[in-house]
Amino acid sequence: MKIAFLPIDNRPVCYTLPKLIVSVDESIEFYIPDRSLLGDLKKYADIEKLFEWLKNLPDDIDAMVLTLDTIAYGGLISSRRCPETFEEIKSRLDNLKEILKLKNCKIYAFSSIMRTSNNNYNEEEKEYWADWGKKIFEYSYNTHKTGSAVTTDVPKEILNDYLETRKRNFEINKIYLKWQNEGLFDTLIFSKDDCAEYGLNVKEAQELEKLGGFVKTGADEIPLSLLSRAIKGEVKICPLFIEPESINLISNYEDISVEKSVKNQIELAGCVISEKENADILLYVNNFKNRQGEIVMGISTENFDGEFAVPHKPYMIADVRFANGADNCFVDELFKNNLAEGNFYGYSGWNTTANTLGSLICAAKVKFLAKKYNAEVFKKLQLVRFLDDWAYQANVRQEFSYPDERNLDTKMKSFENILKKKLNIAGVNIRYIYPWERLFEVEIEFN
Questions:
Q1: For the whole prediction, is pTM greater than 0.90?
Q2: Residue 340 pLDDT more than 80?
Q3: Domain range for 304
Q4: Burial (0-12, 13-18, 19+ Cβ within 10 Å), 210
C-alpha cells in the first residue's frame, strides 16, 4: 500500500512517530515531505515547496492523509498567528483543490477549529495573549454561554483581531465542508483542541456539526487516527477499563468522558468495538478515579494500586491516569510481565487522552495487519514511547527548569537500561534532543 502523509509540523510526535509506526509493516510505501519543509514553534511551513511535493507524488498513491492547516496557514500553531486574509488563503486553497482533484486516491483530511487557551501564555498564540489570554477566554466562554457579547476590558483592537482571526478560520473550514459535500474527501475531521464546556470554539464546532461536519476532540493525534483509517482491514478491539466505575469522568483538555473518547478513537481509526471473547486486541485503559492527574502541573490523583496480569490475547495499554506522562505505579506493575512476547501490541501515555489513544491504536492496527512485519522496529517504537511518556515526562522532566541536553542524556540512561532489558533490545545507541528548545517535548534519536 502507498500512503502519502502531510504532518501538522516537525515535532517528533507529528513527524518521526508516523514514520516509525508505518515502518513496523515493511510492505507500506510511505511518502512524507522533507522535515525542513514543515513549520515549528516559530516558523511557518514552506507552503510553495509542499505544493511541489503534492504535485510530484506518484500517480498510483492509494491514500493521502492531509493536515489542511499546514497548507492553509503553514501549520497548526501558525493557524492562530498567520496574518494573511481570507481571500489570500482561499486563493491558495483553490490551487490545492485542483491538485487533489487530479489524484486518484482516497483523501483523509483534518482541519482545526481555532482554540481559545485559558492562560496568559503566548508561546503558541499571538503576542497579546501574554497580557490578555485569560480575559479573552472569559469573553469567549461567557459570550457563548449567555448567547450574546459580554462586557470585557480587553482592548477593542485586540478583541477585534481575535474575532476576525476566528471568523477567517471558520469560513475556511466551511470551504472544506463544501469540498466534502462534493465528494473530494473520503473522511474530513474538524478538531476541537483544549476544550471547555463553553467558548466560541465550541459554538463553531456545534455550527459545523449542524452543517454536516464531523467534529472530534483532540488535535495532534488525528493524522495518526486517519493513517490508521486509511489502512484497510478489520481489527476488533475490546476496551477494558482499570477503573470501570469512573469511565464517565472527563479528562483534562477534553470535553467528553473517557469512555466516549475511547470508543470514538476506536471507530475513527477504522476499527470495530467488540466484546472480549470476539476481540482481536484487548485495549486496557489505565483511567483515573476522581480526576486526571498531571505531574508537571502539580495535579495529583490516586495512583494505580492493583495487579496487572498479561492476557493470553493480544493487548495494548492506554495509560491516561495522568495527562502528559505515565502512571509510575502502573508501569512498575506492567514491568513485572514480559513485554518482549508477541501478544504485546503497544503502550502509550502521550499527553492528552486523545493523543494517547490515537497513536496507540494506529500502531497496534499496523502491527496486527502487517503483511511484512518488522519486530525490531516495533520494539524501537515501544522504546520511544516508554522513554518519552514514562522516563522523561513522568520522571526526568521534573528535574529540569530549562532544556539541558547534556545532562538529559545522563538522567535518561538508567531508564534506558531498564527498558532495553524489558524489551530485549541490544545494540541501540540513543541521543536525546529538545527539538523546540523547550521542556514540553523531547526527541529520542537512534544513532
A1: yes
A2: no
A3: 234-446
A4: exposed
